[in-house]
Amino acid sequence: MNRMMNVAVVGATGAVGVEMIKTLERRNFPVRKLTLLASARSVGKTLKFKGEDIPVQELKKDSFKGIDIALFSAGSSISKEYAPIAAKDGCVVVDNSSAFRMDDNVPLVVPEINAADVKLHKGIIANPNCTTAITLMALYPLHKAFFVKRIFASSYQAVSGTGAKAIGELRRQVKQIVNGEPVTVEVYPYQIAFNVLPHIDVFLPNGYTKEEMKMENEGRKIMHHPSFKASVTCVRVPVYRSHSIAVSAECEKPVTAEMAREVLSKAPGLDVVDDTANKRYPMPLFTSEKDNCEVGRIRKDCAFDNGICFWVSGDQLLKGAALNAVQIAEELLKI
User: Fold this and answer.
1) pLDDT for the residue numbered 3
2) Among 243, 251, 293, 309, which one carries the catalytic annotation?
């Protein structure tokens, strides 16, 4: 690809879209022209990029003429409708929705894990689920070293995963509770402030939610590991930003905490924060707005023969979404 790119961000005014724009600027992505696309109701707004006010345009079928790369974060239905149109116009789409993740013709990429898959694209590349991406940042290096057969995991997912309205809902509910006012519920089925909801996405006939099954299905595809198994409970917690996941992994090869720590300390995009004597471990408070994920609480699993436990935390809007998308775009520059 040419060095300077005409880039579009679809869903530019949403929580992830805003982060995509910031990430393109922060990482000095070679943008010749930035086009911001959103629904008709966002037209007239402007967003800053490199000190310039860029107007938001309405997303239309002819929006992609002359665009080299389009970063989509506007939901599955928009992606299903517009990503094939963009690809037909010669634009490469990096899609943040679940629309194409399990499509055999679409690479599903975490650049630190399977960057080479970018080359297999036919116009569309999928960004993985945020919880899956953050978990795999720590799990994949362990899999490479010790062959992970299966995991049991629980996620602690920030409201930012649902979008800007959910962040607003948590803020509003905290104020309502502090002021002794009645709590209003709009985004989630129940109050999220001072509560946890063991329900993310829709329930499936097997009792898991779609979100919970993404870890196994997407994990298999990203790691090229068809026999990988994952039993996951996904939980929404009253945290603004950054997802955390507690993982117990069963490996084929013997593994100790020291061996795991050694492997994880060399993993790209991951910082080991694991000093329990000094109360140092990853937390959403400290991983928010950071590119790298953090892993800690690394210990031998006492329920498995070859098991390892860890706790990983990462910014859902960055590694879980916008940063990963921009990193995929950076890989496209190398082709």
Assistant:
1) 83
2) 243
